[in-house]
Amino acid sequence: MVIFSLFGIAVQALMANKLRSGLTLLGVIIGVTSVMTIISALEGMMGVLEEEFDRMGPSTFVVTVYGGVITSEQQWRERQKRKPLDIEAIELLEDGCDLCDQVCPRVYNSATVKYRGNSLRDIWIVGTTRNFVDIVDMEVAYGRFHSREDDLYRRNVIFIGDEVRETLFEGVDPIGKSIHVGSKKYTVIGVAKAQGSIFGESQDDFAVIPFSSHVKLFGDPGRRFNMNVKARSVAQLDETMDQVRMILRSFRHVPYDKPDDFSLLTADAILDQLNTFFKIFRFALIGVSSISLVVGGIVVMNIMMVSVSERTREIGIRKSIGAKQKHILLQFMFEALLTTFSGGLVGIVLGFIIAKILVAMIDANISPSAVAIIAGLIISTGTGLIFGIYPAMKAARLDPIKALSQE
Amino acid sequence: MIETRDLWKTYTMGHEKVHALRGASLEIEKGEYVAIMGPSGSGKSTLMNLIGCLDTPSQGEYYLNGRQVSRMNDDELANIRNREIGFVFQTFNLLPRATALHNVELPLIYNGTSSAERATMAEKALDLVDLTDRMLHKPSELSGGQRQRVAIARALVNNPSLVLADEPTGNLDSKTSLEIMRLLDDLHGQGNTIIIVTHERDIGKHAHRVLSILDGEIASDESIPESQRNGAH
Q1: Chain B contact present for A401, CB below 8 A
Q2: ipTM of this model?
Q3: Which of A38, A117, A206, B201 gives A124 a disulfide partner, CB atoms 3.0 to 4.6 angstroms apart?
Q4: In the prediction, which pLDDT does A199 show?
Q5: What gap in Å lies between CA B95 and CA A318, rounded to an integer?
Q6: Closest CA to B194 of B149, B161, B154, B163
């Protein structure tokens, strides 16, 4: 096959100029590496977010007034005008929503916790009910979570995250010990299983107290109050959301012609919104990193132009003994493509390694993805095609007589 | 085998038109040994480029083996050059980085001959010019005469109907020139059609027929009687 011979000629030409080919390759490698680093790192970050939202479960949604992703200033202003969710809504849904399996109120406050001489600042104090463990997929390492009675009688009991245990109770069994949250004393009843960290943020620096105790300690939660609602099944999710929406609209006196003044968010919806937001970010980053790829392409083109003018006589010889335009074109295209393809392979591997190191800094992990590899190969080969075609065509169109007379 | 009718080649240089050929008509039969002679600027190189299908005439017709080549496109011309014509150049025109064997194989690459067959054919052609012992040498490792013999082997490898030699001895000393001319004489003896373009009388006298060109026109067409020829035949 002629094509194999032409490929062989291209390989020989590249091998004959090792330093030059190597430098050209380096340009391509730098370009592909930078693009691949960004693609892989972004993919890794999205993966972390998805995993996080997966923990919420497919049949659960969040009722919130101020939460969710905000993408415009107008949206933000509208949210600020909303009135907070009243905690009466909990009872209302528990009684009135027959499709709801569980209703779990949540409120957060940050506070300092102390045990004897040790103290921890800025710990998330979560006020919630006993079904919190089921809904957010949290595991009890030892001890227990609150009971219905703890909430009912506003008991001062506390369930702590692993980081709190480690800092305050090193080498001591925390169960039954009293710790201070602000000025109040709480008895430790259980410890959560360690969850590690996401984007460098520890997921274990929290403590959970009964919802009623939280209200007693911090007062009316106001804007910080959300609810997680679990439908009876995934199939009934939409219906359940409709029912909750109806109940809340009448409770909050929303006129029939006005949109909801609260939001119901499923994990999917939040992810979708995040994705839209990240898309812009992603395009911008990939765009910036592509500049180096374009520079790599220009290096390829430049070297190819030099190569064509240096080898004008060779092209003349080949044409005089019967090489057609397409033969010369292919020979030079193979040279460009071989350079960018092999540069692409190295760039994909390097980019992946760098991205892995980067996402490891935020305690995440990535594995090679087919999408990133295919994208990398298409990008690098495409660069070869775009920047190689002009010099190759220039070579192919040379007039054999003029080419032969060149010294 | 070769028939040209009223071939013109006109180049435009700035606003001026330069007629390099002014109506050259000639016929060359299969098996002939022809020299095209003339001083530099006479148009003999232009005529050779046209006969060698490296270029097309501005006007007139050219038939090679009964086929009109004067109207062919680039790819068709490349095909003709590959199969019908073997070139021998003054400056040898070998690829400097390739071995003698690879240089001889070159025309076969472009017509899709398999690599095994290529090697066999190239070795055979190198044997014809008596260079089998040097076939893995690069041009820089060969003498001028050896290089030209490699070029002749390359011209012959495809078994063309015509060998076209453009000043084949122009870069060689007189002893080597004689050696190359003897080789061409031998090739003619084996039945090849050979056209030599030269400005040297002595070289031209190896041929059996001399076409003289002057100012783009064929000035004379004479047969060289055997007694006046140089060389073995």
Answers
A1: yes
A2: 0.93
A3: A206
A4: 64
A5: 9
A6: B163
CATH, residue B109: 3.40.50.300
pLDDT, averaged per 10 consecutive residues of chain A (407 residues), comes to 89 90 92 88 79 76 80 82 85 89 89 87 88 80 88 90 87 89 90 78 85 88 86 89 92 88 84 79 84 90 92 94 94 94 93 88 78 87 92 93 85
Are residues A100 and A246 in contact, defined by beta-carbon separation less than 8 angstroms? no
- State which residues form the domain around B179: 31-56+83-228
Half-sphere exposure of A85 (CA within 13 A, CB side): 30
Q: Which residue has the tokens 């600042």?
A: A121
Nearest by CB: A322 against B78, B89, B93? B78
Give the integer Cα–Cα distance in Å for B25 and B4. Answer: 5
**What are the structure tokens assigned to A350, written together?**
């390097």
How does pLDDT run across A261-315, given as a tens digit for each residue?
888 888 888 778 777 877 888 888 888 888 888 998 999 999 999 999 999 999 9
Inter-chain CB proximity A316 and B93 less than 8 Å? yes
Residue B93 has pLDDT above 90, yes or no: yes
Chain B residues within an 8 Å CB radius of A6? 109
Q: How many domains does chain B have?
A: 1
Subunit contact B93:A1, Cβ cutoff 8 A: no
SS3 content of chain B, % helix, strand, coil (to 5): 35, 30, 35
Nearest chain B alpha carbon to A311: B95
pLDDT tens-digit map of A169-217: 888 889 999 999 988 899 999 999 887 776 666 778 889 999 988 988 8
Q: CB distance A5–B79 less than 8 Å?
A: no
Asked whether residue B10 is domain-assigned, the answer is: no
Cα A138 to Cα A57, A90, A232, B223: the distances in Å are 12, 21, 19, 107
Give CA–CA dist B183/A402, Å, rounded.
29
Is residue A194 classed exposed, middle or buried when 0-12, 13-18 and 19+ CB atoms within 10 A define those classes?
middle
Does residue B22 fall inside a structural domain? no
Pull the structure tokens for residue A193: 């299983």
CB proximity A314 to B under 8 Å: yes
Closest-CA residue to B23 (of B225, B232, B214): B214
Query: How far B49 CA sits from the closest chain A CA (Å)?
Result: 8
Mean confidence (pLDDT) of chain A: 87
Identify the closest residue of chain B to A317 by CA–CA distance: B93
pTM higher than 0.90: no
